[in-house]
């Protein structure tokens, strides 16, 4: 039974079931397949990365999980299909919020618009809060309205902007206080 939104008579959908796990070596290939789409990569340089990039990224995430207690986790849907990642890691670039822990998400195009990114990001926030973090940031391209919406659904607020030397635009830096 669906609940009705107080603002309308449109049934409100339940958030999709998502599961997060530490990325495996095989997930490098699954991430590559999921993100091998110009629309997915539109705000991340516009083109797909080589499998080797995902092999290094998944290996780094396993190390983060072992050392920090959090990472970019592989996101699985109700059928245990890899549909993306979400989680947190130290900001990996020499520009932007250096020294901060960034929460992020990336989702296969076939799963956009169904609540997966928000549901998984909420689970990631709970995990990083449990790991003892007091806040996280999220860096978002200003034209990426989907990611801006996820950040806002998490309760993040815009804290500042940083010039992105790769895209030439001011990247939005959202912040979320996690409390104790």
TrEMBL record:
Domain N-acetyltransferase: 18-179
Gene3D superfamilies, sorted: 3.40.630.30
Highest taxon of the lineage: Bacteria
Gene Ontology molecular function: acyltransferase activity, transferring groups other than amino-acyl groups
InterPro entries: Acyl_CoA_acyltransferase, GNAT_dom, N-acetyltransferase
Pfam families in the record: Acetyltransf_3 (PF13302)
Designated name of the protein: N-acetyltransferase domain-containing protein
Native source organism of the sequence: Streptomyces hundungensis
